[in-house]
Amino acid sequence: QVQLVESGGGLVQAGGSLSVSCVASGGTLNSYRIGWFRQAPGKEREFVARISASGLMTYYADSVKGRFTVSRNYAKNTVYLQMNGLKPEDTAVYYCATLTTLTSVGVWGQGTQVSVSS
Fold first, then answer.
1. What are 62-68's contacts with CB under 8 Å, separation 24+?
2. Which residue among 41, 79, 105, 107 is buried most deeply as judged by most CB within 10 Å?
3. Which conformational region is residue 103 in: left (phi greater than 0), alpha (psi within -120 to 50 degrees), or beta?
4. What distance in Å separates the CA atoms of residue 21 and residue 9, rounded to the nearest whole number?
5. Closest Cα partner for 96 from 19, 42, 43, 41?
6. What's the pLDDT at 82?
7. pLDDT tens-place string over residues 56-103
8. What strands, in cross-sheet order, belong to the sheet with 68-73?
9. CA 112 to mean position of chain CA atoms
C-alpha cells in the first residue's frame, strides 16, 4: 500500500510563502486523486484543496482560494501545495491524502507543521 510523506513546513511571517510536498513510498501517487487538509490546534481537520489524477482539475476551500495552488509532478511522484499570502489563521498541521472519492480519504500522510507569525 502506498504511504505518503509530507515535507516543507516551517515558520513564516504573515504575507510570506511556503511550499509543502507530498511524496509517495511503496507505490505511485500518479493514479490517485490527492487532497490536502489541515488541522489547527483545538479544531477539526478541514479540507484545503484537491487535484485530480490527471492534474487537470483542482478545487479549493474558499478560505484559501486565490492564495494556494495545488499541482503535481508525475516524474517526481510528488504533489505540491504552494501557499502564498499566508495568514496567522493558516497555522496548522498540513496533511496530504489519497482520495477514493471526492470526499473519502484512503491513506493519510503524517503531516507537516506550518506556522505563520503575525
1. 63/89, 64/90
2. 79
3. alpha
4. 9
5. 19
6. 98
7. 999 999 999 999 999 999 999 999 999 999 999 999 999 999 999 888
8. 3-7, 18-25, 78-83, 68-73
9. 9
